[in-house]
Amino acid sequence: MDLVEKINDLCLQTNQTVTKREGYIDWCEYFMAVAVLAAKRSKDPSCQVGACIVNKDNIIVGVGYNGMPIGCSDDEFPWSKNTSSPLDNKHLYVCHAEVNAILNKNSSDVKGCSIYVGLFPCNECAKVIIQSGIKEVVYLSDKNAHKIEYIASKRMFDSAKVIYRQFIPQRSKIEINFEVDWELTSPKK
Ligand SMILES: O=c1ccn([C@H]2C[C@H](O)[C@@H](COP(=O)(O)O)O2)c(=O)[nH]1
User: Fold this and answer.
1) Residue of 65, 62, 50, 85 lying closest to 134 (CA atoms)
2) Is this entry keyworded Zinc (predicted)?
3) pTM score, two decimals?
């Protein structure tokens, strides 16, 4: 319990005005955290990407991460790249996080939505993002900015008027603790 929570707890016990909790995460942190959490489902040993699509009402309408297509076993299909045999390269098979998030949508479409992604989208994802009507891309890392696929993404986004902006975290981490003591956090009866 932090100081404000302790004061509020005291206020609750003595029937005094209680102020709202501090330290809560804002919308952008929340959506990017969902994308980062989704990435933890990825089986790709070298790069885990997550994506979270949000509508204008701040409702999450799709989440995805990079993985093998349904029915293509994570244990049978390759996770290597730079292989001598091109057919053993993961890039031929993996569905990208952005595409999975769009395909997983729980709304009729994703027009006008924003997509939060760990990694700036490649050119193939950029095409799908544009065609789906997504209007904003918020990304954490642009580590591939020098590669032609990513230069092409920006060229297409600029032409199609899809806004892209980097998410600059105001905190280095958000902790998820499954061992919450609900007795301590619940208001007293
Ligand atoms: O926009 C993108 C770009 C890449 N991915 C996925 C595809 C792969 O599983 C990894 C990239 O692997 P590397 O080892 O860095 O080549 O990321 C994606 O989901 N979205």
Assistant:
1) 62
2) yes
3) 0.91
Residues catalogued as catalytic: 98
- pLDDT at site 185: 76
Cβ proximity of 136 and 116 under 8 Å? no
CA–CA separation, 8 vs 31, rounded Å?
Answer: 28
Distance (Å, rounded) from C-alpha 141 to C-alpha 103?
23
The minimum-distance atom of ligand 1 relative to the CA of 120 is 1
Residues of the chain under the 70 pLDDT cut: 1-2, 4, 186-189
With a 6 Å cutoff on the Cβ, whether 94 touches ligand 1 is yes
The confidence score (pLDDT) of residue 1 equals 66
Please choose, from the candidates 116, 138, 29, the residue with its C-alpha nearest in 3D space to the C-alpha of residue 64.
116
Residue nearest to atom 1 of ligand 1 (CA): 121
Q: If you take atom 17 of ligand 1, which residue's CA is the nearest one?
A: 47
Signed CA dihedral, 83, 85, 88, 89: sign only: positive
The reported pLDDT for the residue numbered 189 is 52
CA of residue 61 to ligand 1 center, whole Å: 22
Length of the chain measured in residues? 189
Ligand 1 atom with minimal separation from the 124 CA: 1
